């Protein structure tokens, strides 16, 4: 990860190839981007964007360089696009950054420090599951600025309150648990599809959609405790401890959480995280 950060920092004024960044971390592109997001809390694209705007602001404040030249230097096709992104990041226009006393925001370079973890065991199992069809409600969202972390809980609240969750349980014949599926992840565009769904071969009702989850080998982790804190902690440990300590990496397919019936706020509530994996 440190080598990948060094690579990004040394190429801030050049077009960056995600494959080359991931190669510096000895990882596939998909696995690196997923790992980076879970470990740092920002996407690779968001990190690069914020660092470039930080460096651009410093140049504007300390030199007479033209705004057009700065915008081109940091990868913007036009001054208008640069000004829009700059204003969103700093709250002012690029030209205003030259004024004495102007307050600018800095997004510092990330650094990693060594900490000892792994003192607590992680139980998991490896399962192969054939392709299966799901029916559900779908949300299109973005990972930019953590919007997905706000939108997905709201989506669950909506599905639970408008009867969608109960309807899905019926479509699953009462024998399949509810799934929260993260699919169609496009790291470069910072978008993904999120499904509240159930495994089912039933006809698709109006207002619902269906998709097929491809066959995969899955690493399955159990979460015990009240939602959402318990399962969020499991996600953190998977990417901060389990992946670095094993010979597996994310295979790039959809991943999902499996929610059995029960009280999600209970201290003993059990649910699962399923992640598609492959050997390095």
UniProtKB/TrEMBL annotation:
UniProt keyword annotations, A-Z: DNA-binding, Transcription, Transcription regulation
Gene3D superfamilies attached to this UniProt entry: Homeodomain-like, Regulatory factor, effector binding domain
HTH araC/xylS-type domain sequence ranges: 2-100
Key word Transcription present: yes
Molecular-function GO terms, alphabetical: DNA-binding transcription factor activity; sequence-specific DNA binding
Presence of the UniProt keyword Cell membrane in the record: no
InterPro entries on file: AraC_E-bd, Cass2, Homeodomain-like_sf, HTH_AraC, HTH_AraC-typ_CS, MarA-like, Reg_factor_effector_dom_sf, Tscrpt_reg_AraC-type_HTH
Protein name, per record: AraC family transcriptional regulator
Species the sequence originates in: Paenibacillus stellifer
């Amino acid at each position: 990860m440190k080598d990948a950060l060094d690579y990004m920092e040394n190429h801030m004024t050049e077009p960056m190839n995600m494959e080359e960044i991931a190669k510096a971390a000895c990882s596939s592109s998909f696995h690196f981007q997923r790992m980076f997001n879970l470990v740092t809390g920002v996407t690779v694209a968001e990190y690069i964007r914020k660092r470039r705007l930080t460096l651009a602001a410093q140049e504007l404040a300390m030199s007479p360089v033209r705004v057009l030249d700065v915008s081109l230097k940091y990868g913007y096709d036009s001054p208008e696009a640069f000004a829009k992104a700059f204003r969103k990041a700093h709250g002012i226009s690029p030209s205003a950054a030259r004024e004495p006393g102007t307050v600018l925001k800095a997004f510092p370079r990330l650094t990693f420090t060594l900490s000892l973890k792994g003192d607590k065991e992680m139980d998991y199992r490896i399962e192969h599951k054939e392709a299966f069809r799901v029916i559900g409600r779908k949300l299109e969202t973005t990972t930019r600025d953590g919007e997905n972390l706000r939108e997905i809980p709201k989506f669950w609240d909506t599905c639970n309150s408008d009867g969608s969750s109960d309807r899905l349980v019926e479509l699953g014949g009462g024998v399949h648990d509810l799934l929260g599926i993260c699919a169609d992840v496009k790291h470069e565009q910072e978008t993904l599809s999120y499904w509240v769904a159930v495994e089912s071969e039933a006809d698709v009702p109006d207002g619902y959609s269906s998709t097929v989850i491809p066959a995969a080998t899955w690493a399955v982790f159990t979460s015990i405790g009240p939602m959402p804190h318990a399962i969020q902690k499991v996600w953190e440990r998977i990417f901060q401890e389990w992946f670095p300590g094993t010979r597996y990496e994310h295979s790039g397919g959809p991943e999902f959480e499996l929610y059995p019936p029960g009280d999600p706020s209970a201290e003993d509530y059990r649910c699962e995280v399923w992640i598609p994996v492959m050997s390095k």
